[in-house]
Each structure stands twice: as C-alpha cells, then as structure tokens.
Amino acid sequence: MRVAAVQFAAGEDVTANLATCLRMIDAASAAGAELIVLPEFCNHLSWYPDRETARLRACTLDGGFLRAVAARAARHGAYVKLNVTVAREDGRTTVTSLLYGPDGSLLGQADKLTLMGAEGDHMDPGTERGPVIDTPLGRIGLYACMEGVTSDVCRDLTLRGAQLLLNSLNSFATDEASLHIPVRAAENKVWVVAANKVGPLLPEALTPAIAERLGVPPEQVHGAGESQIVAPDGTVVAKGPRTGEAVVVADIDLSLADVKTRPDGTDILAVRRPSLYRPIASPPVERTAPPGAAECRVAVVADADPLPGTAEAAAAGAELIVLPELAFGAADRAEVAGLLAKALSGTPAYAVTSVRDGDAHAGLVVSAQGEAGVQLQLHRTGRHPWAVRLGEEVAVLELPFGRLAVVVGDDAVTVETFRLAAIADADVVAVPRSSGEAWETSLGLPERSAENRLNIVSAWTEGGLVLDLTGDFTLWTAWEGPFTGRISHPVVTEAGPGLTTGTVRPAQAVNRFVSKNTDLVNGRAWRALGALTETAP
C-alpha cells in the first residue's frame, strides 16, 4: 500500500489550520496515498496563555473541525490520522491522535500519555493506553511526539500486535528525525510513518521571550520537518525536507513487520522476560543515591590480545575499561579475573568483559583486587544457545566514579534492559557485546543513552562506542554552548580497533528532565504499560 506523511505549519487561526489540513490531505491523495498521517496539534499552536483558552480552542469529536476531516477522508476513500486537542465531556482537555477510515468513521483514538513541558500546564495527559486498530490494511497503533522519545509506548503497541505505528509530531528537535523516529521501527521491527510540523511553533509576538526561557535561539523554535517513512530494519525509505511543506510518500509491505528475527534466528519479542520488567510498569521511585563523579575517564579495548591495551589504558588513568564480549575466548571466569587483575595492578581502574561461566553468559567486572561484580545475561539468544542460566535483575555496582550497570551481549537489543538500569539509578552502563545488526550500533545504543539518561561504554571485536551525556539537555534552563537542534542525543565517540579513550559524565545521569515537568524515566506512563509485563499467549 502507499502511505504518506505530510508536513506543514499551523498557527493560531483554527479555520486557516483546517483549510491547510484539508489541502494537504488532498495533495497526499493525489499522490496515491491510501493512508495519510498529519502532524501533532493540527488545530492550533501547542502554546496557550491559560487552561481556559486551551479548552476554548480545542476540538470536540462531533465538532466542525473533525467532521470536515472525516468527510475529506471519505471523499478520497483514505485512512487519515491526525492529532488535535480535544475538549472532553468530563472537563479534561487532551492531546489526542485520531484515525479516520475511508468511509469517514472514527476507527480509534489515543490520548497522549506523556505531555511535553508547558503542555502539562494547560492540558491533561491520557489515562489509558491507546488501541491497536485492526483494519483491512493491517494492525495500526497511534502515538504522538513525546511518546516516541522513549521506548515504552511503541513497545507496548508492538506487543499488542501493531505492524504500523503512526506518529504525529510538533517538534523543533532535529534528533527526532535522526534518532527517535527511525529507532522505534528498528527496535520493534515495525513500520513507522511520522509527520512533523514546519514553521513557527510559538506565537510570533511571544517567541523571543519564550525562546529565551527555553534557552533556544528564536529562529530555531520552528518545526524541524523531516517527516519520514521507516522500514522495520530502520531504513528511512522516504524523508521530507528540513523546512517547508511536503508530502512524503512510499509504498510499503506490512508483512515485513511480521518477521521479528535477527540474523541468528533470535526472535526479539519471544526472548523477552515480562516478569523482569515489572519495575517499568510500577509507580516511579525517586532517586536517593547521590550523583556520580563530574567526569570519568574511560577506554574501549578492541584487540585480539586485550591485555596490553587494558594495562596501557589503566596506567594512563582510565577508570573504566570495556572489552568485547568473550574477549578471552574459552578462558574460565577465574582465569579471566586473574589476567585482568594483573593488567590493572597498581591502578584504581575497573575492566569489564564477559565470560562463559558454565551454562551462563556472565558479564565480569574486575579491579586490581580481583572480581568486583558479575551480571548474568538476562535473555536467551541464538548466538549462544548454551547460555540457559539467566540473570534475574539488572545489578548496579557502587564504584568510585558512580553507579555502574553491565548489559551483557545481546541483552543490548532488548530495550527494557536499559530501562531497568535507569530505574535502578545507574549512571554508567558497560556493554561488552558483538557488533550485531547495523541499527543496533547507529541507532540502538545512542537511543538507550538518550531516552534513559545513561552514559554508555560499549565494545565489540571491531571497535566500540563511548556515549557521553551532555550537560546541554534540559530545556527551560540556559545551555552551556550554542543550541544545535539536538536535545537528548549523547556525545558520540566512535572507537576503532585497538585502544580508544574518552570521557563520560556520571553526574549528568541524575538530570532526566528534558523540559518542564517532563522526566524521561520517572515520567513514564507506567499505568498504561501493562503489555510490557504480560506473557504472550
């Protein structure tokens, strides 16, 4: 089928905004689209002076704005997804995604569960998860903007059978297009169609003052565009421009979203362990651990003989050194611990790799004094069929530079693993692994850092990544440097073969507020994430 993501600007004139919506639906239909996705806040700018105005400008489900959209869907015989504010009969004003069918009927609606910044001042979050809508085209899930900045909502929709996820955005962040949108397709092996705004996102007269409060240049408080259609392997098959209206179209095969296996035959959903994920769907608990160190020197050693590089890194002052998984081949746990302890002798450094420990794949943390911690792999994997004894939690070690978690091997592919590390208040995560599929490195690890506020140091045979949490993160506070358009993306250092050094900032993991009232970890929509902890039938 042919799908379209359309991007455009919407201002404070509701009548003009409706006209734009209808015009863009017409344009997408003329391009042959059977399903059309519009941006978030199609009816009005997301900014309001007070709750009363927000409610006054909101749509009603039987009002003229949505009746016109429904009629236009019926005229073209197309599915249309859009997002507007809705005045509910119970007094709430919600940010709601709606899907209209080719006969103009409302097929499903989903209230936004996680509001961004000032949205929470004037609107109300959703109280229950949105539906997965079974249509002749396929099974469709709806989400909006901030719900896609973390993994929870899209994972929940996927577990309930969605093949196609439709995202409406109202964002000036450029890392939406470069990271948050495509990773949701790849990590769940589903299709994603995402439509973002262009043009001003704030009232023109108020933009300078609001931009100053946000710590963002006024000219960059515009929708970031780059609406896109993403395949289940993370490939962006069509993308719009950074600025200006656009209709982005592609022909897609939804059956590709039914294949959930990695190249080694591992089914990414079948290996999940829902009982381990209960903390994600439980009430958040505030952190009590103090912040970690302001900086921590780290190293990646990707070498067939890792001991010389480990010794060199430790002698040069590295506090955390990460090696690939099974870096010492068939050597047993005690032997590996002894070899690494000798390489670290006389230094305060810690080294991390993994070993085969009988019928378990174990992450091993070693200091000059010997073994300092062990983390068993949590999920089965086709690459290591012998690893059948699994861990029961993500453990966190208290080390001089901060709180360290270890994610072992293919546990890095399961999004919930890092979520658990963040909930356990880890500051740094060491990831000894193999190289895996391309998306796992280019999108997966950076997203695990961004959405959970975790510093990550990962190594595999050919190289590695050092993902450092920038201090320029929280909107509504002054930034240390110029605003680049990227909000949550970590600073990336790519490691090649041999020894690579870098720096991470454990103390930055404490700050999880991406904007006013919006905590990436404790602000998760835990009440609506039941599918994460349910065992598949």
UniProtKB/TrEMBL annotation:
<dbReference type="InterPro" id="IPR003010">
    <property type="entry name" value="C-N_Hydrolase"/>
</dbReference>
<feature type="domain" description="CN hydrolase">
    <location>
        <begin position="1"/>
        <end position="254"/>
    </location>
</feature>
<keyword id="KW-0378">Hydrolase</keyword>
<dbReference type="Pfam" id="PF00795">
    <property type="entry name" value="CN_hydrolase"/>
</dbReference>
<dbReference type="InterPro" id="IPR036526">
    <property type="entry name" value="C-N_Hydrolase_sf"/>
</dbReference>
<dbReference type="InterPro" id="IPR050345">
    <property type="entry name" value="Aliph_Amidase/BUP"/>
</dbReference>
<protein>
    <submittedName>
        <fullName>Amidohydrolase</fullName>
    </submittedName>
</protein>
